[in-house]
Amino acid sequence: MKIDDSRRSDNVEDGRGGSGGRRGTGIGIGTIAVVVIGYFMGINPSTLLGLLSDSQQGGMVMEAPTVTGDSKDPQVDFVRAVLGETEDVWSTYFQKNGKTYSAPKLFLFSGQVSSACGMASAAAGPFYCPGDQKVYIDLSFYRELASEFGAPGDFARAYVIAHEVGHHLQNLIGVTDQTQRAQQTMGKSEANHVSVQVELQADCFAGVWAAQANAARRILEPGDLEQGLQAASSVGDDTLQKRTQGMVVPDSFTHGSSAQRVRWFKRGFESGKIGACDTFNARAGL
Q: What domain range includes position 151?
């Protein structure tokens, strides 16, 4: 990725090595997600707010994190650059649609974290918390993405951030109350299906971001797109289930298969438009 000239975001906070926090619900690559009404495209699906697993126990991060504006850590610098690119793309997109984009914070933690969405360990993976509008990432996940999931490279790492920011876009719609009501009425299978629709939409939004950022600033290099597609494929429910339990149970999917995640990321990238990300009313299914 060509991000040397990218604007660095000031919305990155470094909370590695501290303690203190709260409980709640969250959204992310490793958690069940919130379903939203399409902000720009008139989607009106049933909604579901997923919960971070109660099994995610442990310590917490410091209550007064350091803003990493002057950090010399190359990993932190990368995160700030990518987050800055998401802020620029979505601020422009929202403005063109007569709306104002409110950027999320991105919180770096190590090992365990407590957010407005509850306590989680690094094993849960990166996640977005609508309660405090923050993306949470343990940077060790990037090593696992490369070594264990076979998805190395800068753009694979950028995809992770863009996906979580996609959940932030969904949260900005302000349908949390509707989501919670739907959660109380849905059966498990139906709730899982809707959760898949949400995750695939976030993948599609990540693709839209990549297309828009590349059109504006030519940030992509040869092989970058393939890295993003590999990252999307590596976190598909079927791939993860094969690795962890040796069998695939489609009815238990909450994020979508590898093929679905790749397909929707590509759809967003090839169209460059949020209107292409209607996972809730896709005529040909997911």
A: 12-271
Domain count, the chain: 1
SS3 112: strand
pLDDT per residue as tens digits for the range 123-149: 888 999 989 999 999 999 999 888 887
Buried-exposed string 231-250: b where 16+ CB fall within 10 A, e elsewhere: bbbbbbbbbbbeeeeeeeee
Q: Compute how many other C-beta atoms are within 10 angstroms of the C-beta atom of residue 270.
A: 12
Assess if residue 7 is contained within a domain.
no
Alpha carbons 30 and 126: distance in angstroms, whole number: 7
Q: Does any domain span residue 231?
A: yes
Tell whether the model's pLDDT for residue 39 goes beyond 70: no
Sign of CA dihedral 228, 229, 233, 234: negative
pLDDT at position 174, please? 56
Q: What b/e string do you get for 23-45 counting C-beta neighbours within 10 Å, with b at 16 or more?
A: ebbbbbbbbbbbbbbbbbeebeb
Map residue 281 onto helix, strand or coil.
coil
Specify if 284 maps to a domain. Answer: no
Residues with Cβ < 8 Å from 4, sequence gap 6 or more? none
